[in-house]
Design a protein that fits this description.
Layout: H1 14-19, H2 21-36, H3 44-62, E1 65-69, E2 72-77, E3 83-88, E4 92-99, H4 101-105, E5 108-115, E6 123-129, H5 130-146, E7 159-164, H6 167-175, H7 178-196, H8 201-207, H9 209-226, E8 230-234, E9 237-242, E10 247-252, E11 257-265, H10 266-271, E12 273-280, H11 291-295, E13 298-305, H12 306-316, E14 325-326, E15 343-346, E16 350-355, E17 359-366, E18 370-376, H13 379-384, E19 386-393, E20 400-406, H14 407-427
Antiparallel strand pairs: 1-2, 2-3, 4-5, 4-10, 5-6, 7-8, 8-9, 9-10, 11-12, 11-17, 12-13, 14-15, 15-16, 16-17, 18-19, 19-20
Length: about 450
């Protein structure tokens, strides 16, 4: 398909799927008139609005086309203000397949190209026939890797499934997480109010409707995004698939990981559970995504035991160090609750930091991804002869901090880390491949 000359159009049902909630609203407006058997004369204003919306969607589909020109993906769109966008495939970080609820209903899928850099431009082919999405994705990735035109493979690359998160474990982890506990407290508060003061329940519910909706949305979003998350290993990287209503498929290529975070809440530690998240290059906010979606980290393991987390960590950050260097005892004056848990470590490839008493957080940063180092001393730290060394990566979504170190240790760590990062930058070269499976 992609080797044929000329332009290609998106699927004819793309305007319907892109409308999303608008399509559902149109159905809600028309359903009573059609099912009730009454005429549409009383609904002429609504029908006029619907006709305009449908017409604009059809025009947008009609003036949008795409094709592959050499090593670039070119997308043209716009009627009055024509736009011609070129996306170099050599700068593609990953190509994801996204299928919202309506897309699954109409058997279409979106290809979303994650580009490097902080530009707000995006490459979205929304939507294509679901049978064409995977071959086209494989072909674009082949061009991105080879830098030259290649034949699209007839079948997907073989993959090895590493793990699938069980649904009962995911539900239990959400219930004892921060957002789950907040939801339980809200519900418990309403139940107690209904028992003690039934007349005040309506006022409480109406006054706190926004909070109730926000909490419910947070719980649902997390469950929907991480439902049946499957991690598989393939030649092009780690493949992640998840979703209940909206399905998503993403590939984490070697060298795309900016940082890794392991989160261990207090209740999870009692069960031996942890959460593994990655900060990926090319996950800035894109058109069609909310601000929270664009900023959040990608869950590599929503919930699992430490052994499984260590196995996945080794695949994205080979030879990951452990935080073995603890903070000096006088750091207890500044951080009395968490100083025992402050630790860091490093290897020739990465640095790791750990912090947190109730919610333990461990962060690994590949040194080749470091953008800057900062040594900071606050007023109290200067009195205690302490210093904090910050390790910054691109995107500001995640960074590591060597908190409250002895001043001499901080200076030595800063010099060593700068030297290691400079050496890795100077050596350069392709990112190391993923370790072979067992």
């Amino acid at each position: 398909m992609s080797d044929e000359p000329g332009w290609h159009r998106l699927h004819p049902l793309s305007p319907v799927v892109r409308a999303g909630r608008g399509t559902i609203a149109i159905f809600v407006i028309l359903a009573p008139a059609v099912l009730g058997g009454r005429g549409l004369g009383s609904d002429l204003p609504q029908l006029g609005v619907i006709a305009v919306v449908v017409g604009l969607g059809f025009v947008q589909w009609l003036v949008t086309r795409w094709r592959i020109e050499g090593d670039d993906l070119r997308i043209e769109t716009g009627l009055l203000r024509r736009q011609s966008l070129r996306f170099p495939l050599s700068q593609v970080q990953a190509i994801d397949i996204v299928r919202p609820g309506l897309a699954r209903m109409f058997r279409v899928a979106e290809l979303r190209l994650r580009m490097g850099g902080s530009t707000a431009a995006t490459a979205r082919l929304a939507y294509l026939n679901e049978k064409e999405a995977e071959p086209l994705r494989a072909h674009l990735l082949a061009l991105a890797h080879a830098g030259e035109r290649a034949e699209a493979p007839t079948e997907a690359l073989a993959e090895e499934v590493l793990t699938t998160v069980p649904t009962p474990q995911l539900v239990a982890s959400i219930l004892i997480s921060d957002v789950g506990i907040l939801a339980e407290l809200v519900v418990a508060g309403l139940i107690v109010a209904a028992v003690l003061a039934p007349g005040a329940v309506v006022g409480l519910a109406s006054g706190g409707a926004a909070w109730l909706f926000a909490v419910a949305t947070g719980v649902w979003r997390r469950f929907n995004q991480e439902y049946r998350l499957t991690v598989a290993r393939a030649e092009d990287g780690l493949r992640l698939r998840s979703g209940l209503v909206a399905l998503s498929a993403e590939t984490i290529r070697p060298g795309r990981v900016q940082a890794v975070r392991m989160v261990e809440p207090l209740l999870w530690r009692r069960l031996g559970w942890c959460r593994l998240e990655v900060d990926l290059a090319g996950r800035q906010r894109r058109r069609g995504e909310s601000g929270s979606t664009g900023r959040q980290l990608r869950a590599l393991l929503p919930v699992g035991d430490r052994a499984l987390a260590a196995e996945l960590l080794e695949r994205v950050v080979p030879d990951a160090p452990q935080p073995t260097r603890r903070a000096p005892r006088r750091a207890a004056v500044k951080s009395p609750l968490r100083w025992r848990f402050l630790a860091w470590g490093c290897s020739d490839q990465a640095v790791v930091t750990r912090s947190g008493r109730l919610r333990r957080v461990t962060v690994w940063v590949p040194l080749e991804k470091v953008q800057s180092f900062r040594r900071v001393e606050g007023p109290l730290q200067r009195r205690l002869r302490l210093a904090t060394v910050h390790v910054d990566v691109a995107g500001r979504a995640l960074h590591a901090s060597l908190r409250d170190r002895d001043r001499a240790e901080g200076d030595e760590a800063l010099a060593d880390l700068v030297g290691l990062a400079r050496r890795l930058r100077r050596v350069g070269g392709p990112a190391p491949p993923l370790p072979p499976g067992p």
